[in-house]
Amino acid sequence: MSLFLQLLSNGIIQGVMIACMAVGFGIVYRSFKIFHIALGAQFIFSCYAFYFFTSVFPLPLILAILMSIIFSIAFGILIEKAVYYPFYKKHCSSGVIMIASLGVLIITENLIALYFGNQVKTISNTLEPSVVFAWLRFTRIQLIQLFLGSGIFVAMGILVSKNKIFKTVWAMGDQAELIPVLGLPLLKIRMLIISVSAVMISVPALLISYDIGMDPHIGMHYLLLAAVAVFFGGTDKYWAWGIGAIVLSVLQSLTVWKFSARWIDLVTFAILIFVLMFRPQGLMGTRTRLEED
């Protein structure tokens, strides 16, 4: 029972990290109608920016974190200006933009592997202090992941539901063509969306890389987790993204308990296929009429 509770707790903590990344994926998917494969590139870039500012060009930890987040936002804006917005202006299909987004991921992976190498890099080589609570053991970085991740996820949810600007961002997914008609600055709104997405991706990227390290090819794994969490919960429900992320992560953690870590990807893909086939609007999504789609 103690092993079950430990794995369940670890799954919830990992789920909080995935929930933040799900926001980074979901807000772009809902607003731009783009399958944001470049999230994987954003994740990798954030990890290696953090590694650069802590190991290659060492700065104090807090400053390294701030610089990494700033550079991650700049990278996201570069993706928007160089890839997404030019294709949007040309009225390209979502399939074309998705392929371009995949190209961003592949190019980023290879450039980082070329510069840093393919081997695993670590930020901290010291043993993390741990806390025992009700027979459950948590490391310091796990507690930071839990509380910081939960805080930014909830704060972002409040902004989406209460702030007028973020309500406009949310409305873009339903009637994006009305944004210019209403005289709203479309380009600035798109920049805001991609910047928020970059922050929601970079924060868990920094925490995860500090905890377990990184390699140039981990981006696709976390992209898949974020995307499945969004589709599993429901693309039109913000809080459902968090629920989907935690359920997905707990299922993966319990899979390790009963079977093996090699079955984790099977669970992820099985959930994705199930949702797409039988509940395409997500478990908590709103079913729409065919003519509305």
Task: Kindly summarize this structure in a few lines.
With 293 residues, the protein is an all-alpha fold. The chain is 75% helix and 3% strand.
Care to describe what's here?
This protein has 293 residues and is an all-alpha fold. The chain has a single domain (2-278), classed as ABC transporter involved in vitamin B12 uptake, BtuC (Orthogonal Bundle). It contains 11 helices and 2 strands. The protein has helices at residues 2-32, 38-56, 61-89, 94-116, 140-162, 164-175, 178-181, 186-212, 219-233, 238-258, 264-278; strands spanning 130-133, 136-139. The chain has a two-stranded antiparallel ribbon with strand order 1-2. The N and C termini lie far apart (46 Å). The mean pLDDT is 88.
Overall average pLDDT: 88
The CATH topology:
ABC transporter involved in vitamin B12 uptake, BtuC
Oligomer: single chain
| Gross geometry | globular
Overall structural class, as computed from helix and strand content, comes to mainly alpha
- Total helical segments: 11
End-to-end separation in angstroms reads 46 Å
Low-confidence stretches: none
Tell me the domain tally.
1
Physical arrangement of strands within the biggest beta sheet: 1-2
The portion of residues assigned to helices is over 70%
Which architecture would the CATH scheme give at its second level?
Orthogonal Bundle
**Could you describe the largest sheet, including whether it forms a barrel?**
2 strands, antiparallel
Q: Output the helix-strand order.
A: HHHHEEHHHHHHH
